[in-house]
Amino acid sequence: MKIMKRICTILLMALFINGSVIAAEKLKLVSLSVPTMNCAMCPITVSKSLMNVQGVQTANANLAKGVVEVSFNDEVANIDALLAATKNAGYPSYLLEQY
């Protein structure tokens, strides 16, 4: 019985690790310039608007730099959807860099 539990645990871990590797390969990272962020609530609003885009994994806005870094699954979302999300939230943005 213990051996069977260990085998199951190892198999589940292998599936999880392989799934994570595949998912990580599909993620893209971009930096968007959001020059109209000018208060403490702006980065929160921008990040929330981006997190509402299907496929977005993270959205980290930096008020001091006026930049938000976004990681997303490019099979589900695209840069145009990200730009539209910030614009619709009242914060037009443009692509700075794509990694």
Concise overview:
With about 100 residues, the chain is an alpha+beta fold. Helix content is about 45%, strand content about 25%.
Q: Could you please describe the fold and organization of this structure?
A:
With 99 residues, this protein is of the alpha+beta class. It has a single domain (27-98), classed as 2-Layer Sandwich (Alpha-Beta Plaits). 45% of the residues lie in helices and 26% in strands. It contains three helices and four strands. It has helices at 2-26, 42-51, 79-88; strands at residues 27-33, 56-62, 67-73, 94-98. A four-stranded antiparallel beta sheet has the order 2-3-1-4. It starts with a helix and ends with a strand.
Properties at a glance:
99 residues; 4 strands; alpha+beta; Alpha-Beta Plaits
Task: Write the topology of this structure.
Elements lengths: L1 H25 E7 L8 H10 L4 E7 L4 E7 L5 H10 L5 E5 L1
Antiparallel strand pairs: 1-3, 1-4, 2-3
Order of strands, main sheet, comes to 2-3-1-4
Number of domains: 1
Q: From the 3D structure, determine the CATH topology.
A: Alpha-Beta Plaits
Q: Which percent range fits the helix content?
A: 40-55%
**What's the CATH C level?**
Alpha Beta
The secondary-structure class comes to alpha+beta
Largest sheet: 4 strands, antiparallel
Order of helices and strands: HEHEEHE
